[in-house]
Amino acid sequence: MSTPLSTTSYTLIDGKKASEAIKEKVAADVVAFKAQGGKTPHLAAIIVGSDGASETYVGNKVRTCEAIGFKSTLVRFPSEISEAELLQKVEDINNDPDIDGLIVQLPLPAHISVEKVTSKIKPEKDVDGFHPVNIGRMNKGLPAFISATPYGILLLLDFYNIPTKGKHCVVVGRSHIVGSPISILMAQDTKVGNCTVTICHRHTADLPAITKQADILIVATGRPGMITGDMVKDGVVVIDVGITRVADATKKSGFAIKGDVDFDSVAPKSSYITPVPGGVGLMTIASLMKNTLSSAKKEIFSS
Known about the structure:
Helices cover 36% and strands 17% of the residues. By secondary structure, it is an alpha/beta fold. It has two domains: 37-125, Rossmann fold (3-Layer(aba) Sandwich), CATH 3.40.50; 147-281, Rossmann fold (3-Layer(aba) Sandwich). Strand 2 (42-48), helix 2 (52-68) and strand 3 (71-77) form a beta-alpha-beta unit.
């Protein structure tokens, strides 16, 4: 017989509420910046091919730019574009003094190197935070553009005033996009940081023994429902980064969106928990806008 779960009441970490508050603050900062003689922040996005999810993401970014007072430029290329042509366009945008931030929407076609493209973007315009210079600066605790998902996690924890100092943060997943950077950021001597951090991956022995130690549990594996209620302790703060389509005949669409955490069994033991959807994913655009405004203000790389 399984052990009954705790019935501790939890707070739902509302990504929509947090992201809207952040975007409102960015919009107000744009007005103030321009009143002081600053320029209108300008974000450029490149999309290659016609991937449906990419179209949705880029469309949301463009609409957000318009809503908060940014300029935006959207560049479309067919999937057949050569790597050389794409790299040349990146270079052209690098050399455009009016553009503050550049993102190249992923995924890219198989014949184009993601590493070459992300490394071609000037670090001072790399508002997605994927350039090796920004990754290196982040690792050293220097001012840097932090990629959207790790930055979004920090912003969520800060928005909800969740204590992190001295806490044990367990990160499940070691990707270069989420797991590795957030493990570094949570350990740094910052307001949202100063944790003792353990990072786990597919070769970790006895994962439940480690996740049960977590005061803050961040999961980014892409494996729906892998973290269950018997793998966490009472009062844990849970940040679920996973977002996967799972077949569901009860849905009109034929699928449901699931996170890496089994919400129904984990939530009753949590103090705070992010829903999927509606949690971390909504913070990515807010993070991107903050980075673009910082670029326009030369806050990361001085001119």
